[in-house]
């Protein structure tokens, strides 16, 4: 009885197994027929990507490799006889320089304060501009103005505004009683770096505002309505609903701007040139001085390579952590 039933099941399953086998064979045949077309599409895609790959190779990859190579060789802009393999001497020159540690801490302070201030101010501006206020479109256009002003022009304008002799801001602060007398904000050791940081925040926060505003508009309104019906207040809704939706955009903005700010040279050089007495000197300014004032190309490339290694480490840590999170 059992044997007969087993035979019937085997016989009944045979057509099903044959049908599945035929379907698999048909899929394989279809894949083989599509292979020439797919190969052609891949060749066409590679052909279209070739100019971009050449651009990256010539203008980015080769200069980076050259900087790394020069960091292990002696080089001087005014003395062609200074050449040859240096090993780690250029790195020792940088690490033993008395300005290296102060410049490192200035870079850290400049980067952390700038990114934190830009994010906080950008988030506040994005929340305000997301509200149904009158003239919202006009304000959204105005907030972008600092971002589109070139760094050199913005730096020079702020130098004039902060000038202790004829600066408008000093005059206003004295008139309002905030200061007893005009102050040289860019010429004093204790305020130079913080002043440049403030100006950098003023110029860069609109980029955060635009990005975070776009993310805010993508938050489903029904979630806020449901939370409000459940008794959640505005602050509770912000932390539980809004911020999780801004997390991905916020992390991307912060990581990108940490890299951009740490390697920023323009603002500090235009406004203070790293002074007074190197009080606002950061690592990019130090690289410039190594190369264009001391003419020591090897030391400049060594410091640039160290900075690149740090930024690459930050970049890979971020994406490695992001990849592990997505895998989980």
UniProtKB/TrEMBL annotation:
InterPro entries documented for this protein: MetI-like, MetI-like_sf
**UniProt entry keywords in alphabetical sequence:** Cell membrane, Membrane, Transmembrane, Transmembrane helix, Transport
Is the Transmembrane keyword given for this protein? yes
List the PROSITE patterns: ABC_TM1
Locations listed in the record: Cell membrane
Where would one find coiled-coil regions in this protein?
Answer: none
Look up the domain of life of the source: Bacteria
Main localization, broad class: membrane
Which residue ranges run through the membrane?
45-65, 108-130, 137-160, 185-202, 246-270, 297-320
Q: What is this protein called?
A: Sugar ABC transporter permease
| Native species | Labrys miyagiensis
